[in-house]
Amino acid sequence: MASLPVIPGHGGFVQPSSYLRPRGQSQPMTSPKPESAIDRDQRIALQRIRDFLKVRTSYDVLPLSFRLIIFDTSLLVKKSLTILTQNGIVSAPLWDSKTSTFAGLLTTSDYINLIQYYWQNPDAVNRIDQFKLNSLRDIEKAIGVSPLETASIHPLKPLYEACRRMLETRARRIPLVDVDDETGRAMVVSVVTQYRILKFVAVNVHETQLLRKPLRHLKLGTYRNLETAKMETSVFDVIHQLVNCNISSVPILNSDGVVTNVFEAVDVITLIKGANYDELNLNVGEALQKRSEDFPGIYTCHIDDRLDTIFDTIRKSRVHRLVVIDEDSRLVGVLTLSDILEYILLEGEGDDSRVSSNMNSSITSFPPAPTRSPPPPPTSSPPPTPAAAATTAAEGPTDLDLLFIAEARPLADIHAPSKKPLPTGLSKKTARLGKWLRKVGKKMRLGKGKEGEGRGA
Q: H-type helices in 317-457, by residue range?
């Protein structure tokens, strides 16, 4: 057996540390840096938000009164566009009546894909009016883009899981899909958006006031390789930017780099309503003039603004993104709701949990966004749509309007009372959804909050 080497001057004993480092080079232990008060408050606030999301369900986020519009996949794309604009919405769940299954979520991206197809195949413009929603899959394959969003979640799953699912799929909204106890088939309950989740947090989690670190130090938002355009840029060019960069908006700058407006993906819906694709030949300035009068405006902030003031803005106004500007209103960056949602869920959870890293570490911080009061709610309900199959109010804790949009539905059948059963089994479907809502409301024993704050407020 080999003997261990003896170090001179140590009385025949071997020091294990002598095999790890040269003699005389000791490594003094450094005490951890004490946590500052602002860092502690930030950590407490983030943990409180995550705890809240884990005990609340997606059902809690739903307002006390809402309208659910579902499109049958056999509906013409042209009619779906008209219904969206008449009801002031930008997305709707899809339902395959042949298989009685949830078929995905129709969003503005699908209409932009249709425009891309029209641009690549100008001879096909005459056939666009005959496209049905179930043909969007073929269009996606033809232009080589991602398919329809099909991610969904059960309405009684923790809200935290819904947020993680949205981050993983890069979706801005997620349908709530349950299974009918009687038929065993899927049933769309509603759709939850990032905005509604963040507003739900802003209203109910008072610890958001502790998020006092400025954006500069949070590395929150996008500040590099920003896509921009000018008022003279063609709408087609901006659409290509939206598609190629997978973004939902493009800041509009003047010759001095000052932010004058933002072109959003939803602006495309306004242009092509009525299947008037010639409007796409306009420039950005002309296209933005066609916005409705109740457009809430563009929200801006500064790099030294804090997250607590941004949550306060989300609580008061319908915000989908904030444009980061400097003192001269020049573009600095863009902060989206996806950025905020990713931060409150994943900050401090380890680098592997981050979904994206599009931040610029050299940037500094945001003042409160110049809040523009959102337009007052409409005094009257939107006009009825000719393709609507029925409107039914569910009893119980929720007043639900369910519009199932299908083809070949005469307008007279909507307004005139009739003893004939509704097509595609809608009356039974609506009754089951109302029964489900009453059952869940009773089970969870949730109190009624203010309109728009969610039933768990």
A: 337-346, 412-415, 426-444
